[in-house]
Write a structure and sequence with these properties.
Order of helices and strands: EEEEE
Strand order of the largest sheet: 3-4-5
Shape: globular
Helix content: under 10%
Distance between the termini: 14 Å
Length: about 50
């Protein structure tokens, strides 16, 4: 799987995530969504990663 790597959540779950994900990013599921998204907190907003 190109541009993917393994990651582990704080709860111990493993996931394949985009290679651009960094320590401190969050895994989030939004209302109505079918898949979890990687999000990165910013100073005044949260942006999607990958």
């Amino acid at each position: 799987m190109a541009n993917r790597r393994m990651a582990r959540s704080l709860r111990g779950y493993f996931a394949m995530v985009p290679a651009c994900v960094r320590r401190g990013d969050y895994i989030a599921t939004f209302a109505g969504g079918d898949v979890p998204l990687m999000v990165r907190p910013r100073s005044w907003f949260i942006g999607a990663v990958g």
